[in-house]
Amino acid sequence: MHRYERLADHLRERIQAGFYQVHERLPSVRALAQAHGVSLSTVQHAYHQLEDAQLIEARPKSGYFVSPRRERLPAPPVARTAQRPVEVSQWEHVREGTCVLPDTSMHNLGRGMPDIDAPTLKPLLRALARVSRRQDLIGLNYDTLHGRPELREQIARLAVGQGCRLHPDDIVVTTGCHEAISIAMRAVCEPGGIIAVDSPSFYGALQSIRAYGMKAMEIPTDPETGISLEALELALEQWPIRAIQLTPTCNNPLGYTLSEARKRALYALAQRFDVAIIEDDVYGDLSYGFPRPVTIKSFDEDGRVLLCSSFSKTLAPGLRIGWIAPGRYHERALHMKYVGTGSTATQGQMAVAEFIREGHHEPHLRRMRAQYQGNRDRMLDVIESAFPASTRVSYPAGGFMLWLECADGIDSVALNQRLMAEGIRIAPGVVFSATGKYRHCLRLNHAVFDAEIARAVSRVGHCVAEMLTQRADAGQPETA
Amino acid sequence: MHRYERLADHLRERIQAGFYQVHERLPSVRALAQAHGVSLSTVQHAYHQLEDAQLIEARPKSGYFVSPRRERLPAPPVARTAQRPVEVSQWEHVREGTCVLPDTSMHNLGRGMPDIDAPTLKPLLRALARVSRRQDLIGLNYDTLHGRPELREQIARLAVGQGCRLHPDDIVVTTGCHEAISIAMRAVCEPGGIIAVDSPSFYGALQSIRAYGMKAMEIPTDPETGISLEALELALEQWPIRAIQLTPTCNNPLGYTLSEARKRALYALAQRFDVAIIEDDVYGDLSYGFPRPVTIKSFDEDGRVLLCSSFSKTLAPGLRIGWIAPGRYHERALHMKYVGTGSTATQGQMAVAEFIREGHHEPHLRRMRAQYQGNRDRMLDVIESAFPASTRVSYPAGGFMLWLECADGIDSVALNQRLMAEGIRIAPGVVFSATGKYRHCLRLNHAVFDAEIARAVSRVGHCVAEMLTQRADAGQPETA
Ligand SMILES: Cc1ncc(COP(=O)(O)O)c(C=O)c1O
Ligand SMILES: Cc1ncc(COP(=O)(O)O)c(C=O)c1O
């Protein structure tokens, strides 16, 4: 553990114990450095970590203060997973959720859609229209396999904010983060090989494991602190795992951000067992804490991290523009990119590059982060009042997803069926598991929040309550 | 063999033997029917086949006439291929050709780029700009996994012209034909499995075979009549082949169109050996004969044909919009689509659907077919005058590619290197082979033809001649 991490832990304990009260000013950086005999930057580092965790907040020119902490519902506990590699099933449930047309008469709380109606996104629409009118017709032409140079340049610039030094040539543009993950898996693992994943986990990654004939080793993951490094180490000792695939920053579906210390420890584990890390950072830029947490890729000294991301959650998913920085697997990744789709659609790339170059990206992110954080709290309020008391819920550090755990035996697949008749969709927990676990869990999207959505969420809660009562009435035994 | 095929063969022989002379009027449909004791539609069918083969042409209200037949350079002979399944190599050469940026200072005769500067394509640019301005923002949203309904509807309508009855729900939109082929292979074949391919063959399909750990069984293919059904049958008898992948209409790189009789025979073979057919129809709509030849898919009675295509060659490759009609493999194909890229970029789909719905597609195709056919002949003239007499060249029935076979020992990879210094690129033959055959062959793009391109093609020819002289001077022995 680093010095600053020890200091952060010390401060966290004091805040949680009530030694420092809400809205109280914390010691100045200088005072703390003297008291603990550490450097100023160590203190700053520790304070940044606590800021990321939303325990404290900086006020310009006056220092750090303890954040008001909402009364929180209990978080879900760590789930137990199979302690061996498994085949992935659940496609029928994933299919159900992805073969849906955008439908304004429906409240789709199930899908990973950002809010695309923000005014800060308008310049992107203008850029798209402009690109279509370009006389050189480059937008209609095959792009180079790597992706447009002007876009890779912007992606490399943005990476600096994630603690990463990337050259544009380190990056391959992809058809969304989905293709990036798909490329990464095929680049590092043969059919029959084993990939370790956080659990619950993004269903797209799980289904890729299935499609390529691989197996998933699901690692128990804490909704607050993230993937269990102890369980991961055990798995790495016992099985010939080829790669660790996870979403360590603003995790989908749990919402946690792995601390920098744990990210480093995970990287060290990967080095020790010589496995690759497939780091999905698709929600990373939506971290409520600012500056955003660093990526595992930022520690990568031997090219074993394949960083995967996209503009789907930050700008618009319909563009299908993502990227991969595949480190030492660059050549294999490029081959997999080639055989998967050839090059990526050209016009969208050009428009996004313009949007970023003209300075619209950062203001847009700032707005969306604030909106999503606010909506999180609003939706949590509704959940607290409408769901049965047995419900547990995550407290995301970024993004726009909440993870709910209902009482054992509540079937969220059946819940979803029932809600669909009323024009509401949720994401049932089973899709986040290789083998249909998390059936009593569900994920809700809080990208957009208004009175109608509040009503829809209430309706979900009441439906869960009804199901609970019906179960009690029927005297059904609890199923695992 | 069908009756009309026997009749067509009979007429072909007579034309080729000079019994019917160039510009001579052929017997009327009625007269021929009476003479041969067949129905009117049998004669019509036979005449259509000869039209497809560009041997005769219809003149409105006056009947069928023998086409003027240009003095043709000799076609390349059928190449010998390895008579066993092989692993695919050659990625470094494919990579070289696809990691290239569009560059107006370069004459890229190597890539499969259509002419995107035609006036008939302008409505597409307008549609793209219009879609960007749509208030409902559907273009920014995740599309359903299958692709936009309005686009699938148009694709199903167009399929009628290929003899196919498809329902929009039979179609899955993809990120180009490349993704369609990639999906098809993974849907029908496991890693380690064998796929039979025409040879020479589209390099993207070959590289997919490599990437998915499969093996290629290359089937000798005649530049005029297409894949050898005899060799294919032998291969099917000897090896556990899972699928036949080929481009039977306006083949890339050879330019032939498999006759309808051979398409039927191939389908029957697939049935007999119970293998799937992956039919790449990406150039099919650019057949110079009109109406365009039917697809193998049009005979498909048990869903074993996976039809793959795109708008890359007919409209614009930068859109990356293709489709697959995977028949009985629909569910597996949908899963492979999901894990490869999730859904396809939305805006381009909407714009293409509008372009077709508004009636711009057919006039555009008509124009492009005429342009490409004219350019073929112009480029053939240049080739005839500039290349050594030992050169053989294909006589495409559609599309915009010419296949040249130089004297044995001419190294087209070295040729390409040399030409690049002068701002010219070609596609070296090796990329069309699993194992680096066709090194003395090359492919040239004739989508656009003007004085500058003529000069570039001349330059290629002179370069080949120089290499030939240098070889003779050096007294190098011929290499295989
Ligand atoms: C964690 C995670 N990774 C990747 C993706 C896929 O992103 P894209 O739409 O860019 O393919 C998603 C979207 O659902 C996601 O939630
Ligand atoms: C025969 C053939 N099939 C498929 C493709 C790929 O098409 P797309 O650009 O739509 O992926 C090409 C393009 O080079 C081709 O020549």
From TrEMBL, chains A, B:
<comment type="similarity">
    <text>In the C-terminal section; belongs to the class-I pyridoxal-phosphate-dependent aminotransferase family.</text>
</comment>
<dbReference type="Pfam" id="PF00155">
    <property type="entry name" value="Aminotran_1_2"/>
</dbReference>
<dbReference type="Pfam" id="PF00392">
    <property type="entry name" value="GntR"/>
</dbReference>
<dbReference type="InterPro" id="IPR015424">
    <property type="entry name" value="PyrdxlP-dep_Trfase"/>
</dbReference>
<dbReference type="InterPro" id="IPR004839">
    <property type="entry name" value="Aminotransferase_I/II_large"/>
</dbReference>
<keyword id="KW-0804">Transcription</keyword>
<keyword id="KW-0808">Transferase</keyword>
<dbReference type="InterPro" id="IPR015422">
    <property type="entry name" value="PyrdxlP-dep_Trfase_small"/>
</dbReference>
<dbReference type="InterPro" id="IPR015421">
    <property type="entry name" value="PyrdxlP-dep_Trfase_major"/>
</dbReference>
<dbReference type="InterPro" id="IPR000524">
    <property type="entry name" value="Tscrpt_reg_HTH_GntR"/>
</dbReference>
<keyword id="KW-0032">Aminotransferase</keyword>
<dbReference type="InterPro" id="IPR036390">
    <property type="entry name" value="WH_DNA-bd_sf"/>
</dbReference>
<dbReference type="GO" id="GO:0008483">
    <property type="term" value="F:transaminase activity"/>
</dbReference>
<dbReference type="InterPro" id="IPR051446">
    <property type="entry name" value="HTH_trans_reg/aminotransferase"/>
</dbReference>
<keyword id="KW-0238">DNA-binding</keyword>
<protein>
    <submittedName>
        <fullName>PLP-dependent aminotransferase family protein</fullName>
    </submittedName>
</protein>
<dbReference type="InterPro" id="IPR036388">
    <property type="entry name" value="WH-like_DNA-bd_sf"/>
</dbReference>
<keyword id="KW-0805">Transcription regulation</keyword>
<keyword id="KW-0663">Pyridoxal phosphate</keyword>
<feature type="domain" description="HTH gntR-type">
    <location>
        <begin position="1"/>
        <end position="69"/>
    </location>
</feature>
